Amino acid sequence: MAFELGRLNKRTLTGRRDPQRKLLFGLSLDGIRMDEAVDRCRQAIQSRRPVLIGVVNAAKIVNLRRDPSLRDALLDCNMLLADGQSVVWASRLLGRPLPERVAGIDLFVELLDLAHRQQRSIYLLGAKPAILAALERQVAHRWPGLRLAGSHHGYFGETEAAEIAAEIRAASADMLFLGMASPNKEIFLRSFQHMLNVPVLHGVGGSFDVLAGLTKRAPLAWQNLGLEWAYRLLQEPRRLWKRYLVTNCAFVALTLREAVRPAPALQLDASSRSEL
Fold first, then answer.
1. Can you tell me the distance from the alpha carbon of 98 to that of 37, in angstroms, rounded to the nearest whole number?
2. What are phi and psi of 112, to 5 degrees?
3. Residue 147 burial (CB < 10 Å; 0-12/13-18/19+)?
4. Phi, psi (degrees; rounded to nearest 5) at 109
5. How many CB atoms lie within 10 A of CB 100?
6. Contact of 67 with 262, CB cutoff 8 Å
């Protein structure tokens, strides 16, 4: 799907006029709390006006500099939230404070609570078939009031993407949750959001594994200290040590640079095309 040449991110055009939005690292982040984010989603369902949710942490802020697809997918979001505590701390150091961290997995749970209370429907897309099946069982047990409109595992090829999008549209769900890795989930949402007919679209990454009971999340004390990355590192040190070392150092450098010379609002690539 081609995008208009020279198109500015619609969020950055209003970011300076809206006191709740903070321009950080070139991104216009929504400075809202969890209850406000959930309320926006509730309103989107009632009005059937889609809200595409994006979440950013230190890794995404670093990686979007070299990944145009990830950058453009984030710029296209209607609601962009600080998923990482390090981003919240950086915002305060830079004098553009965000009120709190709104973690993608916590928002996922809150929206499942909302679906349960209001008997809304959801669609689950992502993970391996066995993990997806385990998640469906957990959801049915913990949130019996919601309706599962459909589901599909996340291991599909480029040629299947449009067919799956059509399947989601036919399901007429109130919320779509994508348990896929970045930037795949952002790219899928950006490519197909306008045809999905789903009011709330939220990419939740590895949250499917956590809620299915297959992966342990860091204890609350670690989360409050911004050390979830360290907890994951302890679980998989050989695979993750280099990634976190490079990413964390790069984020510190970007924060120092932002303090000296704030980055201008990022723009969508003039030649950008969404690809899966």
1. 13
2. -65, -40
3. middle
4. -65, -45
5. 14
6. no
- Most confidently modeled of 11-20, 143-152, 173-182, 228-237? 143-152
Q: Which helix (H) or strand (E) holds 123?
A: strand 121-126
Contact 82, 88 (CB under 8 A): yes
Contact between 45 and 175 under an 8 Å Cβ cutoff? The reply is yes
CA distances from 154 to 125, 134, 173, 188, 248 (A): 6, 14, 18, 11, 28
CA separation for the pair 47, 254 (Å, rounded) = 39
> pLDDT, tens digit, for every residue of 74-111?
998 999 999 999 999 999 999 999 999 999 999 999 99
Q: What's the one-letter identity of residue 42?
A: R
pTM of this structure: 0.87
Q: Highest mean pLDDT range out of 7-11, 172-176, 224-228, 230-234?
A: 172-176
CA-angle at 64, arms to 14 and 180, nearest 5°: 100
Is the dihedral angle over the CA atoms 156, 162, 166, 171 positive or is it negative?
positive
Give the whole-angstrom CA distance, residue 237 versus residue 186. Answer: 27
Residue 144 has phi, psi (to 5 degrees) of -65, -15
Length of the chain: 276
Q: Are 151 and 124 in contact (CB under 8 A)?
A: yes
